[in-house]
Design a protein that fits this description.
alpha+beta, C8orf32 fold, 21% strand
Length: 198
């Protein structure tokens, strides 16, 4: 009688342990690798790998339609993204493509940065998505030279603490730069902040 009562509990515990093991290997395994000139990352659905450059889409019709209303101004593009995209944090990593962020009007730091970079790259080839550390946490922002574009603000404004931003890897729709070998892997190992800058 006691054995019959324990069996369902043991079965449930076994399933939970297996699930934790599978998820653990998914999140602690390799987070990026280079293959055939691509920098691949598993940042959407389990088992899918995407090139980093796929997330910056200046030729996307949805992005071009928004750009037609804003025009070639980095400040206006940034302000549009800051006002249009409400910051929401991911559970794990789930990167959105710019059209998804545009239609959902929400996303976290990389989602809003991809949208901004996609708009900006239509007219300015010097804009990059940057992955790195902000105050010790993993973060994404855009840059042009030494100018930082923080897309998690609620409106466009200069960052008050540029020294707190530590770049590790940069990319756009054509190029990827790791600032040292293995930097991309390191950035995925950083703890994520779960709150917006405001």
């Amino acid at each position: 009688m006691i054995v019959k009562g324990i069996l369902p509990v043991v079965g449930i515990c076994t399933v939970v342990v297996i699930a934790i093991g599978v998820l653990g290997s998914a999140f602690t395994g390799r987070r990026s690798h280079a293959q055939d000139g691509k920098y691949l990352v598993p940042v959407r659905y389990l088992g899918q790998w995407h090139d980093l450059r796929d997330f910056v889409q200046p030729d996307n019709p949805d992005i071009l339609a928004v750009y037609a209303e804003i025009g070639p101004s980095l400040r206006e593009c940034l302000d549009f993204v800051c006002r249009h995209v409400t910051y929401t944090s991911d559970l794990g990593e789930m990167w959105q493509f710019p059209s998804e962020t545009l239609s959902r009007a929400r996303g976290d730091c990389e989602d809003s940065t991809f949208l901004f970079a996609s708009l900006a790259r239509i007219f300015d080839p010097q804009v990059w998505v940057v992955l790195g550390s902000y105050q010790g946490y993993g973060h994404a922002w855009a840059s042009k030279g030494s100018t930082i574009f923080e897309t998690t603000y609620t409106s466009a404004r200069p960052v008050p603490d540029p020294e707190a931003y530590e770049p590790m890897a940069m990319f756009n729709d054509t190029d990827v730069i790791e600032l040292w070998p293995g930097a991309l892997e390191e950035v995925f190992g950083l703890q994520r902040r779960r709150a917006a800058h405001v």
